[in-house]
Amino acid sequence: MVLKESALPPLDPEDQSKAYVKYYRDPAPPQPSHLSMMDTPCDPWKAISPEQMNDLLLPGELQVEIGWCNLPNGAGFIANRNVYKNVTAEMIDWWFAWHPLDGLRYRLWYPPQHVGIALSVESREKILDSSIPIRERNWGVTHHVTEDCNCGMENIDITFQSPRDFGFDMTRWREPYVSIFVGGFGWSSPAGKTGRAIKAPSLMCHIFRQIPGGLEHRTRFWMGYRMSQGKPELVLPPGVSVPAVAVQGLARHNVREFSNLSVLLPEIYAEFGGKGIA
Predict the structure, then answer these.
(1) What angle do CA 248, 226, 50 make, to 5 degrees?
(2) Contact 140, 160 (CB under 8 A)
(3) Which helix (H) or strand (E) holds 225?
(4) Own/partner pairs for 226-229, CB < 8 Å, 24+ apart?
């Protein structure tokens, strides 16, 4: 039997010496039926706009839990759902504080397309500040990431927010309908381009809620929106739409990266989760 050779990008000697390098491996593939749901766009009239984000706090399901499309106003919409067995809220909080501190950690998440991550000095100090609850350490912090979402390598700045600052009605924020929010707004531009390259904004929303034996993770992206004075604002000119190839590319990337995280996280947390995040 001939084993398939891994096609993962090579690591430099410093990364090869790190204790968690063994998790730099071919990712767990998504279920084909899950990925195939991103083959064609969903009905845009069944999708929700960011102004309807509080519908995510309702029990049950919305009309589109997995799918992508262009909304009638041209914005890109993505919904995805993953079920994480044997994953707790504490693991999610730890992961989002642990992985941005080192480029290799980010690459472990989805090696084929995650290339790097960086923080400012101030952001790193905040994430390492043990006086702040771990769930809150990313609030106001910007992750500078480089990744390929199936449309070429991009530099993306993601500023994380609290659920209140993102616009959720906190009077409706309660278990078991919602446990954790990870999200905010971001700007992307093609990697290797000049400062004149077009930068595209998006809103990113990850909601986690308890289910028997683990967590349910519900994702929404709204491409072409930014946050303005605490509210979502469409920035597309009239008649302009986010390219469908970009919306579908991010949708398929999201399925793959979080399918892998559902396998990776319980393993890596069991080894490193009790050792803090440094």
Answers:
(1) 70
(2) yes
(3) strand 225-228
(4) 226/185, 226/201, 227/161, 227/166, 227/167, 227/184, 227/185, 227/203
With beta carbons less than 8 A apart as the criterion, state whether 53 and 204 touch. no
Q: Is the per-residue pLDDT at 102 higher than 90?
A: yes
pLDDT value at 32 more than 60? yes
Please report, as a single letter, which amino acid is at residue 210.
Q
Plot region of 67 (φ>0 → left; ψ -120 to 50 → alpha; else → beta): left
What is the spatial distance between Cα 24 and Cα 49, in angstroms, rounded to a whole number? 36
Q: pTM for the whole thing?
A: 0.94
The whole-angstrom separation of Cα 100 and Cα 118 is 7
Identify the three-state secondary structure at position 132. coil
The whole-number pLDDT of residue 2 equals 37
Contact 77, 70 (CB under 8 A): yes
Q: Which helix (H) or strand (E) holds 250?
A: helix 244-272
For tokens 């397309």, what's the residue? Answer: 113
Q: What's the farthest any 2 CA atoms get from each other in the chain?
A: 60
The alpha carbon of 253 is separated from its chain's Cα centroid by a whole number of angstroms, namely 10
Crossing angle of helices 244-272 and 89-98, in 10° steps, is 100
Give the model confidence (pLDDT) of 158-205 as tens digits.
999 999 999 999 999 999 999 999 999 999 988 876 555 567 899 999
